[in-house]
Design goal:
By secondary structure, the protein is mainly α. It has helices at residues 4-11, 37-51, 68-83.
Length: 84
Amino acid sequence: MVEISDIRDVLKSLESLKAVVDGLSDDDDLFEKGLDSFGSVQLMLALEERFDIEFPDSALGRRSFSTIRIIRDTVSGLAQQEAA
């Protein structure tokens, strides 16, 4: 199971968000807090490496990376698919 704290740890590795991660709620819009398209690609790569998953094209939309909670749910779903 992927925990919110795991996602926060990954977000802290991103230059654009590391200074604000601890002050974010699980439902804050990360794009409003500084995440840009380059950062979202870095985030995707970091999540793939950390959780040994691969984001399919269908999960590469802005929504998949918009909040900590949505990221956790997306990564959890992908991890379950990988395990099946």
